[in-house]
Specification:
By secondary structure, the chain is mainly alpha-helical. The protein has one domain. Helix content is about 60%, strand content about 0%. The chain has twelve helices and two strands. The chain has helices at about 5-20, 30-40, 55-65, 70-80, 90-105, 115-120, 125-130, 135-140, 150-160, 170-180, 200-210, 220-235, and strands at about 145, 145-150. It has a two-stranded antiparallel ribbon with strand order 1-2. Helix 3 (about 55-65) packs across helix 12 (about 220-235) and helix 4 runs antiparallel to helix 5. The longest helix has 17 residues, at about 5-20. The protein is globular, with a radius of gyration of 28 Å. The termini are far apart. Residues about 1-10 and about 20-40 have low confidence and may be disordered.
Amino acid sequence: MPLTLAEIEELRAIKASHEASAVKPPARSVPERTAVTAERRKHDLPEGYNPAVKEVERYLRKWDSLDGYVEQEEALSLLFRSHPDFKENVSMPVVLVKCSTLNDFYSTRIYRIHDVAGKIVSIPDFDVRLDSGDPTLVKEIAEVNGRVNYSFATKYCSHHRPLKYPIFDRYVGDVLKTLKKRRPVDFSCFKTSDLRDYPKFRAWIDCFRRVYGLTSYSYKEIDRYLWQLGKDYFNPYN
C-alpha cells in the first residue's frame, strides 16, 4: 500500500533531524610528515662545509665498511684489469660479459646491453685509446641507438684505467655544482653542462683537487669520497 503524502513528509522530517544531529568527522589535517618531506627536499651540503683531507679520509674509511661494495669493486677489478682473458675489448663475448656485469652492479638500467657491447667492439683502436686516457672515448661509448649512457661510459673506462678516468654520476655532479655556487671564482671556468662533457668534467675534477688540496688522491679515491658525500646529502629518498 503506497504511503500517503503526510507519511512521506514525516519520514523526510525524521531524516533531516538525524542528519542535523549527526557528528561530522573533523577535516583531515595535512600530516606532519609532509612538512618534514618538504624540508628534506632542500638538499644541500652543511653550511660552511669544505672538502679537506680529513673528510676524504673519513669517507674512505667509511667506504671500506660498506656492505657489499668492497666485494663488488674487487670483482670488477678482477674482471676488467686482472683476468688475462678479459683485459682487451675486441671480442664480443668478452665485452658483453663486462658490460652486463657493470650494468647489473651499478643498476644503470640499460636494457639493450648487447648493442652497447657491439658499439665498444666496433670502435677502432679502442684499447690503445683507453691506455692513453683518451677522454673522447667516453662519448663514443655512451651514444648508442639515440640514447646517451654517459655515466655507464665513464664507469666502463674507469674500471679499465682508474688512474685516468674519473667516474661521473648524479651525486658527484650535485656536489660539484654546490661547491661551484659557494666558490664561484675558483670554478668560474665551468658550467653545469660541462659535467656531461667528459674532457671538461675531468678538468673540473682536477680543478676540484687543486682548489681543496687533494691532489695526492687518485680519481678512484676522489670518486668514492664525492659519491658518498653526495649520497649523504642529495639522496632524494633521505
